[in-house]
Amino acid sequence: MGLPIVAIIGRPNVGKSTLVNRLAGEQTAIVHDEPGVTRDRTYLPSYWSDREFVVVDTGGLVFNDDTEFLPLIRQQAMTALSEASAAIFVVDGQLGPSPADEEIATWLRQQPVPVLLAVNKCESPDQGLIQAAEFWELGLGEPYPISAIHGSGTGELLDELIKHIPHVTEVPETNEIKVAIIGRPNVGKSSLLNAFVGEERAIVSPISGTTRDAIDTVVERDGQTYRLIDTAGIRKKKSIDYGTEFFSINRAFKAIRRADVVLMVIDALDGVTEQDQKLAGRIIEEGRACIVVVNKWDAVEKDSYTIYDYEKDLQSRLHFTEWADTIYVSALTGQRVEKILELVVEAAESHKRRVSTAVINEVLEDAVSWHSPPTSRGGRQGKIYYGTQVSTQPPTIALFVNEAKRFNDNYRRYIERQFRQQLGFKGTPIRLLWRSKK
Ligand code: GDP
Ligand code: GDP
Q1: What is the mean pLDDT of the chain?
Q2: Containing H/E element for 248?
Q3: Where, by residue number, does GTP 2 bind (predicted)?
Q4: Sequence-distant (≥ 6) Cβ neighbours of residue 427 within 8 angstroms
Q5: Nearest-CA neighbor of 123 among 154, 97, 143, 150?
Q6: Residue 15 Cα to ligand 1 middle (Å)
Q7: Nearest ligand (C-alpha, residue 294)
Q8: Which residues approach ligand 2 with their CB closer than 6 A?
């Protein structure tokens, strides 16, 4: 969780989006809707060498302009910068340094974040060096000539960038498992929390969370500590007549982000709703481990088909049931509630799991010999050179291939299934990064 952030800053039209897209390859954007910021910032996962990070396009930073959006845009850039490990300041090499560039540079020099200067639109190597040299005057150190469109020069830029980016695995390890209990109002989140805590109140110390939205409760079982992130604690205020749903879903989103394992609570009497699907989508986007908890099982009239019908409903309406365990419980009677924690431990272990490069390549070799990569119409066949796990939480495996676009969704799913079948990863999403090697 919490990949280092690289902010992409610059005037409009210098090529920021083009650069972001190049850095992110074919990964899809994660759009975080943050209240108070009108233009959504787009976060794109990326990596270079053994470093993973997220690039954020900040929108155009304009200083000498009095458009009405100016303060917002500037605020956005500042917010992006405040959470960034490094920034790339993009300028237009064909236009040369402009007064606005100088103004932005002056501002950037005052920020406590390392800034790299990328001089874009330098397609011709010789010309590029000359164009780039003009930007020494900005006082931001060496200008890197690049072409975001063609990709030239970006390697050198990234080599320098990753020197400023921390290793994600350097995050201190704790034995505590953070568990978010999420779900729609009235599905039984508070009741579940109480069932966990139960008579053990004595050893429970409520600790206020980092936000006022959730109160964490720490419980211990057999030497394992669980930090339960409760999102139920705060009730909708009846007097607020705007967007209560908006607020509660945002609270859930925040809890998901802080968690290692999410307990996605579903009301057995209602089945999976649209809101549940929304929450499920976010769990996958954030790469959290998950357990589907169907609560109020005591209140369901059961026959021998009931479980089967539920499983079918879950499978068709939640996309992650391929890997997430489902458990049927009653917070009211306590039935199977303790068993949830066993699943939590299992899911947290999968989430943190690291698999050696040798094992990954064994699985790949096997998978490819059962089922060769597709051949495109042009006749060139997809080829996987090797794979390696680049991070955990969730387990993320980079696959170096001749050309990523030769691998269609079907084949990608096949490879993911092979990893799961051979290596397990129960309870956690896994990510595969398909990287073209040129
Ligand atoms: P942004 O407003 O800073 O995000 O800029 P865009 O990425 O939208 O690019 C602005 C314009 O510059 C577009 O017309 C791009 O095609 C062009 N552009 C971006 N990168 C390059 C480049 O490396 N070389 C050239 N020649 N043009 C580029
Ligand atoms: P929250 O809004 O998700 O925190 O839900 P609550 O824990 O406040 O529960 C909402 C309602 O569902 C309460 O009336 C609970 O008594 C009831 N409830 C919670 N869990 C169960 C359960 O396992 N079985 C039954 N029958 N009712 C439950």
Answers
A1: 81
A2: helix 244-258
A3: 183-190, 230-234, 295-298
A4: 261, 289, 290, 291, 323, 324, 325, 343, 346, 347, 348, 350, 351
A5: 150
A6: 3
A7: 2
A8: 183, 185-191, 232, 295-296, 298-299, 330-332
